[in-house]
């Protein structure tokens, strides 16, 4: 299983692939979550073909069918699913219908590529904690994503904290879906750091359910997607908490561009930040 993920840049794939190979990374694709892309199968196929040139390597010359080739090439990779304006829990049936459509379109792209998993977002109103609203959010998401998980058994589904103010509501959904084998939590630690709750509370609460992690840096106020080590996040604390609560999940270094990714990986390697181990001094 890949321990690290990077966001690939289609315009810089040679360097991206070299960096991924050096650190044993898979890719998490950010190309497919916008509505115009989800509605355009030709653009999807063009993007997939571009990535396949680099992800296939020698396997491209093996006698696989196109579907087998894609599954062979992308089988450890993941993607961001639709998240803008996706509100599965809406009381408005029209909003709910288009939200369902976008999630299913995301899952179809993942199935077509043979991806390992898809990341979705909570999509709830941050800070709004009316009991009826929270119960409705949990129950509708649990019902819908249980159905989706059963329909796409080869893909993992990860629910990510967006601008949630605390981990308890997401933990409630995960507990309700604990018997769904291909569902789990994606902890976005950068989002957690600007939530007002401590990293300790986020990781301790969600640890039993975490299957995927996103990291980048910020000023503890805004979602900046800085290189790891370039902001105010206490990465030693992150490392200690993940190991203390025995979280065994891969980590996406969610920063854009080769330079920021390389800077992040070097920082993590130098300081032994999970999932890396600290380099021994000579």
Give structural notes.
With 282 residues, the protein is α/β, with parallel strands linked by helices. It is built from 11 helices and 8 strands. An 8-stranded parallel beta barrel has the order 1-2-3-4-5-6-7-8, surrounded by 6 helices.
Q: What topology emerges from the helices and strands here?
A:
Layout: E1 4-6, H1 13-23, E2 25-29, H2 35-38, H3 41-56, H4 66-74, E3 78-80, H5 93-113, E4 117-121, H6 131-151, E5 156-160, H7 168-176, E6 183-188, H8 189-193, H9 199-206, E7 210-215, H10 235-244, E8 251-253, H11 258-271
Parallel strand pairs: 1-2, 1-8, 2-3, 3-4, 4-5, 5-6, 6-7, 7-8
Features:
eight-stranded parallel beta barrel, 282 residues, alpha/beta, single chain, TIM Barrel
Tell me briefly what this model is:
The protein has 282 residues and is an alpha/beta fold. The protein has helices at residues 13-23, 35-38, 41-56, 66-74, 93-113, 131-151, 168-176, 189-193, 199-206, 235-244, 258-271; strands at residues 4-6, 25-29, 78-80, 117-121, 156-160, 183-188, 210-215, 251-253.
